[in-house]
Amino acid sequence: MNIATPKFGVGASALRKEDGKLLRGEGAFTDDVRAEGELRGYVLRSPHASARFAFTDLDAARSAPGVHLVLTADDLSHLGPVVCQTPLKQPDGSKHALKHVPLLCDGEVRYVGDAVAFIVADTLAEAQDAAELIGIDWEFGDAQVGLAAALEPESPLVWPDLGTNQAFLYRMGDRSATEAAFAEADHVATVKFINNRLVCNYMETRACLAEWDGEAAKFTLTLGSQGVHNIRKTLANDVFKMPVEDFRLITRDVGGGFGTKVFNYREYPLALESARRLGRPVKWVCDRTEHFLADAHGRDNDVTASLAMDKDGRILGLKIDLLANMGGYLHQFGPFIPTLGATMSTGVYDIQNLDFELRGVYTHTTPVDAYRGAGRPEAAFLIERLIDAAAREIGMPVAELRRKNFIRPDQMPYKTPGGRTYDVGEFDGHMTRALEKADAAGFEERASDAKARGKLRGFGTAVYVEACAFAGSEPAKMTLDADGGVTLYIGTQTNGQGHATAYSQFVADKIGIDFDKITVRQGDTDELADGGGTGGSRSIPLGGVSVARASEVLAQKMKKLAADELEAAPEDIELVDGSARIVGTDRMIDYSDLARAARNDEDRTADADVVQDEATYPNGTHICEVEIDPDTGIVEIVKYTIVDDFGVTVNPVLLLGQVHGGVVQGIGQCLQEGVVHSEDGQLLTASFMDYTMPRASDVPFFDFETRNVPSTTNALGIKGAGEAGTIGACPAVANAVIDALDRARGIRHIEMPATPQRVWEALNG
Prior knowledge:
Elements: H1 19-23, E1 39-45, E2 51-57, H2 59-62, E3 67-71, E4 108-109, E5 115-121, H3 124-133, E6 135-140, E7 166-173, H4 175-183, E8 187-198, E9 207-213, E10 218-223, H5 228-240, E11 247-250, H6 267-278, E12 282-285, H7 288-294, E13 298-309, E14 315-327, H8 336-343, E15 354-362, H9 376-394, H10 398-405, E16 414-415, E17 421-422, H11 427-437, H12 443-452, E18 456-465, E19 476-480, E20 486-490, H13 499-510, E21 518-521, H14 539-566, E22 573-576, E23 579-582, E24 588-590, H15 591-597, E25 605-608, E26 619-628, E27 635-645, H16 652-671, E28 702-706, H17 724-745, H18 756-763
Parallel strand pairs: 1-12, 10-11, 14-15, 20-21, 27-28
Antiparallel strand pairs: 1-5, 2-4, 2-6, 3-5, 7-15, 8-13, 9-10, 9-12, 13-14, 16-17, 18-26, 19-20, 19-25, 22-23, 23-24, 26-27
């Protein structure tokens, strides 16, 4: 069906063009890909959180039916580990020790699920059976899973050679100036809380298919990822120490990523090495319990934060002491995540004095890394919980305290103590609009009605700002195809966001063409030399700008070709409905003929790599209203209002989906999700029987609108939106729950997740 191009341009609510094949079951996820003669890999994982071990029998497994290979650490001495890529500079200028993730453990394990051996067999069942035959002599050690307790003098050490469980020390701000500000304060408010550990739980678990071409001496790895190029570099440079050109990585359809599929994991090089040794393809597919045990977890901070204010409620200073759980190893971006959060710790407020001390901590748990928002949700939760606590401390309405301390538009661009430069923002504007939409003025009447029904009503607000689309670029390449269609090659990776739709809108804006004749190609290192991948809400703000620029270049080339063919001036040519025509006439040439008229590939290709020098800063207000049943502790979200500032909106429908999904993840953290370990390090929440995920019945309909102020650092004014819902939701819901508990019983703290049991226990002492 031909639909006029303007319907598909930037700003249009174009429906997702990629959904048809997925709804018909025609998707190609990693486990759908088959290779002739493929074998199955299986990881034998540690059942202990802290132990030394030695193999007593490998022969039985190696001779078991169907088994082709059993790898241990002794077999992999020629390969490097999975490297932590973000070491920090400590306050004294020293570099902290880097404890990378080994491909397989060499005599010691550091969390339940740590990898001990890799078995390859004809079938998964045969590999699992062989794993049972491996003899291991375990020498158990004491485990430490508690974050604060890990720093106590007698705590069991994850890395005894360090003499401490402190992985690193990091400071930000001006300690002496902040101390002086606190000394002058009339009021000080303090909060202490745990930002709970989460498991990502994307729909599609990780998987890979590894192949080795012995004649070409080249690897091919098919995997679900958030970008193939960075994983290829890590595999080539850090693990195999081979040229990147010797690796082809392919990602097809991906069932969710949320940051956790950005990384190189140990299973990928294990499968590749096995394929090279055996000369046959090797597939590994993660099961759900393995995902709980082995994929990087998120969040897990222990926080103490204090706010100093004068008698009028003006903020004088902010002090933060934060412990960040790193788990048993420093994961790929592990140290970077809490430090990124630190840069956003002052939020939307004009706070001049900051003292932020961060200590990374090793524990006998799964390593922690980026999960949707990656440090910014933790920062927003911290400051927005603290602002609410401060308002109660001084007896001021929370909206008034916020207004009194917002960074004003006339202060922009604004340099924060965390080193961020906000270009634009009208924080009071969207908070005022959100309060109006949420009918804040009518809340007391609703609270009285709830009380008459035996319920506790609470009203919570969070005003957030985040940093995303960080400085950098995302190259894009386009071709006019022989059939008159356009193909875009770009190094980001959709994992559910709708990239094929959004990028096509940029193309449609510049080149008059049917939407279904635009093809978006991602996820193949042989098709595009480099790419930054998807994460940090960078795909549309960075990739979209390059796509728009490349579209402009291709459009000019097409007009030049058409002008030559039609004997007209290029400026007299317009591109409409798949044809180039002379304006005001019926003389035209369709795009397929235009492609054939090209003298060489250069005539019908274009590329662009637009560099952005600073991050963008989406911001907004979330307001949550809850009712609590005091007899059961059940929290019901009865109303949820969002007013966001995302700069220029590319596609309102896609945007709505991103915000809704993010809010549900924030609700999940606040009310339901949370990792629990036993004292000896066993993961007690290792399945959906024990780890609660939000369902449709747990969330309300959302009242969402935008109040956009275009970014001045992004060439198209776009700010990014992929993580914003998660960042704003968690503190809004928590503030609503605490507001209800405070009104009813004077309870001003509850840890997340605020499960029915926790709420009931708080209400009943």
